[in-house]
């Protein structure tokens, strides 16, 4: 019987670099979702792909608990949820090249100019995330916010290690029955365009 305690992973102590695969009984590629919210995508991806291991990071305690409870109710063994600041976690606690797919869907846009510095997509974060991606690893990013998407798209597209690729050709998107993440559904209903971009990290294992 999987309990919520089995699903949750504690944030590592200062200076600790984790081995994410040690959290799981079986092997398989490791995927990370940043800002998983209530865990709709995380659940769908982990449930449909028992051969991958997934970590969802969520800062808001309410959503973190909600997501973890959801995974436990589905008795999933291939998913963990952590409550922490993903920026700090990616920069300090992930070994290089461990992430096969990075999912970032509808990161908070912080629309006021004076709050832009709180946005996830900053040069430092992008460099840290690229370091955590495996060679050939994929990065999927989606947003309903025109201006933030354009800014993040420009930043990602300027990275020499990343090559933009066709989202649908990656084979990572859920099947046709997928309705979208909570924010995707909410903003699509309100008439917003949903922008998507996908990248592959260049390089070989010896990089
Ligand atoms: C707009 S919501 C999108 C949630 C979900 N991805 C979706 O599409 O429905 C953004 C989420 O990212 C979380 N978040 C923002 N900054 C974060 C950070 N630095 N680390 C972890 N989670 C973060 C917020 O708490 C929030 O739940």
Offer a quick outline of the entry:
With about 210 residues, the chain is of the alpha/beta class.
The fourth-level CATH homologous superfamily is Vaccinia Virus protein VP39
Q: What is the rounded distance between the termini? A: 41 Å
Provide the CATH architecture. 3-Layer(aba) Sandwich
What share of the residues does DSSP label as strand, in percent? 15-25%
What's the number of extended β-strand segments?
7
- Give helix % range: 25-40%
Under CATH at level 1, the class stands as: Alpha Beta
Query: What's the alpha carbon Rg, rounded to whole Å?
Result: 16 Å
- Output the number of helix runs: 7
- Mean pLDDT over all positions: 95
Strand order of the largest sheet: 3-2-1-4-5-7-6
The outline comes out as globular
Q: Which residues form runs of ≥5 with pLDDT under 50?
A: none
Number of domains: 1
Largest sheet: 7 strands, mixed
Q: Give the CATH topology.
A: Rossmann fold
**Bound ligands, each once:** S-adenosylmethionine
Structural class: alpha/beta
Query: Helix and strand string, N-terminal first?
Result: HEHEHEHEHEHEHE
């Amino acid at each position: 019987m999987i309990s919520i305690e089995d699903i949750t992973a504690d944030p590592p102590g200062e200076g600790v670099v984790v081995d994410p695969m040690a959290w799981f009984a079986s092997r398989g590629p490791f995927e990370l979702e940043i800002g998983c919210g209530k865990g709709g995508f995380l659940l769908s991806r982990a449930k449909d792909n028992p051969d991958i291991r997934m970590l969802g990071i969520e800062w808001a305690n309410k959503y973190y608990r909600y997501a973890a409870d959801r995974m436990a109710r589905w008795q999933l063994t291939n998913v963990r949820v952590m409550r922490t600041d993903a920026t700090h976690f990616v920069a300090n606690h992930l070994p290089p090249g461990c992430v096969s797919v990075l999912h970032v869907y509808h990161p908070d846009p912080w629309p006021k100019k004076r709050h832009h510095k709180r946005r996830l997509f900053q040069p430092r974060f992008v460099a840290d995330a690229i370091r955590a991606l495996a060679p050939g690893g994929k990065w999927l990013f989606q947003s309903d916010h025109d201006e933030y998407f354009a800014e993040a798209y420009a930043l990602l597209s300027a990275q020499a290690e990343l090559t933009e690729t066709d989202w649908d050709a990656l084979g990572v998107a859920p099947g046709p029955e997928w309705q979208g993440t909570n924010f995707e559904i909410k903003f699509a209903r309100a008439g917003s365009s949903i922008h998507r971009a996908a990248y592959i990290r260049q390089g070989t294992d010896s990089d």
